[in-house]
Each structure stands twice: as C-alpha cells, then as structure tokens.
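B., you asked whether I could sanity-check this one before it goes into the benchmark set. Here's the sequence:
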Amino acid sequence: MDHSGHGGHSGHGMPMDLPPFTLGRGLELSGDPVFLAGCLLALGLYAWGVVRLRRRGDAWPVGRTVFFTVGVLSIALVMCTALNDYGMVMFSVHMVQHMVISMLSPILLLLGAPVTLALRALPVAGRGAKGPRELLLALLHSRYMKVVTHPAFTIPMFIASLYGLYFTPLFDFLMGSRAGHIAMMVHFLAVGLIFFWPIMGVDPGPHRPGYVMRMLELFAGMPFHAFFGIALMMASAPMVKAYENPPASLGITALSDQNAAGGIAWAFSEIPSVLVLIALVFQWYRSEQRQAVRKDRAADRDGDRELEAYNAYLASLQARGR
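And here's what the prediction gave me:
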C-alpha cells in the first residue's frame, strides 16, 4: 500500500489522501449516514414527545430539551463531519470522537430525560394490550436492566472498553470495516449511557444509589481513564496497529499523534467529572429543597400539633408545680 499520498483529495472513499488536519477541514460536513439518520430520528422523536405534552397542556422543562438537543448535536459533530474521516487515519482525532461520544454526549442526553419524556408522551395501551409504553416500562423493571446499570457491571465495562479494546487486536479488527467502526462508536455511546445513568440521570432507573455512593461510582472509573491517557503519552512506540502508518499527506508521525491522543484521553477524564459533579450537587440540593417543602407542608397540615402538644405539656408541668 503506497502511503506517499499527493496531498489532493481523492474523495472520501480514500482517506489516504486527506490534507493535513485543521479544525476547519475537520468540521466540513461529511457524514456517516447511519449516525446522521440516528441523530435526526432522535431529535424528531424527542420533538414529537414535547409537542404532544404541550398540546395536552402539560409542561416540559425547556432546559431538558436544550440538553438533549445539544447532546444529539455533539454526536453529529464527531460522526457527521470530516472528523469521522480523519478519525480513521489519525489516532488523536479518533480519540476526540471516542471521548465526546462516550463521556460528553451521554451526560447531555441523560440530562434531557428522554425516558421520562417517552413515558409521559406515549399513549397508554388498552386493558390487556401491550404498546410501546408498556414495553418500555417492562424493560426498565427487567432483570437485564438491573444488571447492566449496576456498578459491578458498568465500572468494569467502562474500563474494559478502553484497555480491552485499544491494547488487543479487537480494535484493528473493528477499524478494518465501516460496519466495525460504526459498531465501536455505538458501543462507546451505550457504555457511556449505562455508566452515567445511575449516577446522574434524571430518568427513573432500576439502580439508584444515594448521592454519596453516586460520587464514589463516578470517581471509581476516572483514574483508569487518566492512567490510560498517560500510558499512551509515555509510550515510546506506536501501540495501535491501525494508526502506525499515517498517510504522508497528513504530515504527522505515528508517535506524536499517539501522544496527542493520550493527552486528549487524559484531559477528557477530568471534564465529565466536573460536569457530573455540578449536576449531582444541583440535583442533591433540589431534592433537599423538595424535602424541606414537604416538611413545611406537613407542618401546615398538622396545624403545628407537635407545638400545641408541647405547650400543653408545659402547662401541665406548671399546674403540677403549684
């Protein structure tokens, strides 16, 4: 295979001759049709749900719609632009795709509460019948969901999709075909969703620990991520076969590209942690507020019976003391 390349673009079928990477070139539209269709479908279904609720006179927080839309757009940004072409030949660009789709997009999508929206927007099937809403509820309550959202599954899965993929021949096998590459990206998105859902998802889920446990779960996965990035930065030889001979037209070396990929993986392990912590603290604060409101309401309902009882007790003591 001749890697000399002549600078010119010979169409997207041949990523061999991509010109040197710049952000402008990376953001040109050059989409993966599978992801493009998926993103459009996700936005369409979400919009349908929101419109259906509004027509019924129900409110749906604008913030959730914004989060979900930005989440879908973040997937489109890395999968439906030339970043996807460059990601096939540049480890660093692939790492940006991986980090966004596994650690940023899932957080944004989850803050959009798509499952809650679906449960509220889908019609209830008639007695004895099973519609989409009933199937979704059955899935949420299934043993399968309990397993895949449990930290004993999500944390090892999160770690394995770094080490088990990049440091074994599996990565090169998947990179060998378009279908393999799509499957890998779908896997990254799915792993991100099941990892972050129990931690900071707004939607109801089978595994929902307390806030302190959620923070511990979040921090259990991150050091492995950082260490993975450092391992790539420190390596003195290319570690992934798919990227060991970058096309000459790119004007990069495999090692500098791999070091950049490691730096991206390392830096990115911090960003979602901060985002999730902010979301968690906010959710915690909101739940405390709700509890305080509930207590106030209960006190109003009881007509401050406790206080009256205490006053009566004091009065009885005084009576005795006379």
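One thing to flag: The mean pLDDT is 82. Otherwise nothing jumped out at me.
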